[in-house]
């Protein structure tokens, strides 16, 4: 099946928002017959009736409203992708230089930068994506104005502020013995099992190490060290071994049963995601605006 194009999804969302094909077509600057044809093509591609066309006008069907809700999320993700890509392209010479660890860069920072760009379209933002330890180093050396980390710290010489929360989960493929466990995994069992892990300096790795130390269960036993969450996720799906990973990184895989979350008792795997900047320095301008926006979004 050929996938729907973004313009058709945008049209469907506008029909839902504005209440008619004519108004949606006008908002996109296309003729109403073209809009109707595009929606008919989308219906054929998805095999669903999306628009109820009557003499009184057009409205989305129940299926159409569901698809429009999903389409809105897809378009938001695409906007975040474009914003993040622009920021990665413009690391050097930017007015606002930002560094972020992987989880924050994938799931939070593009939306924050997008909002900064909407309120100040002339603001030139550069983004560097590295692990938490490297983010802190870039901030401490003045290479970036503001950093975002997922490690628990401590961060000597840096001021910090909570911007979001996250939770790590133990995941295994559906065929793994842990996927059929009836009782929770203990902290000691987790510590005794070789895991697919991120590299040293990664926020996820540091969070797991810290959580197991607090539980008195000993250090992580690395089975395989990889440099990104996607690499860890794919290794687990392929059967390499269990992993502890952000639940944000495995939403689709858990929903599709490609990965199964395993309950753990006796160890706290929640974590706080933080902004960091040099201690004693007051943020100003776009950096202060970005921090305010990030903190506010974490409270909503």
UniProtKB/TrEMBL annotation:
Residues annotated as domain HTH lysR-type: 4-61
Pfam families: HTH_1, LysR_substrate
SUPFAM superfamilies registered for this protein in UniProt: Periplasmic binding protein-like II, Winged helix' DNA-binding domain
Keywords noted in UniProt: DNA-binding, Transcription, Transcription regulation
InterPro entries (UniProt xref): LysR_HTH_N, LysR_subst-bd, WH-like_DNA-bd_sf, WH_DNA-bd_sf
Gene3D superfamilies: 3.40.190.290, Winged helix-like DNA-binding domain superfamily/Winged helix DNA-binding domain
UniProt record similarity statement: Belongs to the LysR transcriptional regulatory family.
Protein name, entry field: LysR family transcriptional regulator
Species this protein is from: Amycolatopsis melonis
């Amino acid at each position: 099946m050929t996938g729907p194009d973004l313009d058709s999804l945008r049209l469907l969302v506008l029909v839902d928002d504005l209440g008619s094909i004519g108004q949606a077509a006008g908002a996109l600057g296309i003729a109403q017959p073209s809009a109707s044809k595009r929606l008919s093509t989308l219906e054929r591609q998805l095999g669903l009736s999306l628009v109820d066309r009557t003499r009184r006008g057009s409205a989305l069907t129940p299926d159409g409203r569901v698809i429009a809700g999903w389409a809105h999320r897809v378009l938001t993700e695409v906007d975040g992708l474009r914003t993040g890509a622009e920021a990665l392209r413009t690391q050097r010479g930017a007015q606002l230089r930002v560094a972020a660890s992987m989880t924050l860069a994938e799931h939070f920072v593009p939306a924050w930068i997008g909002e900064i760009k909407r309120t100040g379209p002339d603001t030139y933002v550069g983004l560097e994506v590295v692990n938490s330890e490297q983010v802190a180093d870039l901030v401490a050396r003045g290479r970036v104005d503001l950093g975002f980390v997922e490690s628990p710290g401590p961060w000597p010489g840096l001021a910090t502020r909570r911007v979001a929360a996250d939770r790590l989960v133990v995941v295994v493929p559906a065929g793994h013995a842990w996927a059929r466990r009836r009782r929770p995994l203990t902290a000691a069992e987790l510590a005794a099992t070789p895991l697919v892990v991120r590299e040293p300096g990664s926020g996820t790795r540091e969070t797991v190490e810290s959580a197991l130390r607090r539980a008195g269960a000993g250090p992580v036993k690395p089975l395989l060290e990889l440099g990104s969450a996607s690499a860890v996720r794919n290794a687990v799906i392929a059967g390499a071994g269990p992993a502890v990973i952000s639940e944000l990184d495995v939403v689709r895989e858990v929903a599709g049963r490609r990965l199964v979350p395993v309950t753990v008792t006796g160890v706290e795997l929640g974590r706080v995601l933080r902004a960091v900047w040099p201690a004693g320095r007051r943020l100003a301008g776009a950096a202060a605006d970005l921090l305010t926006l990030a903190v506010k979004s974490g409270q909503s």
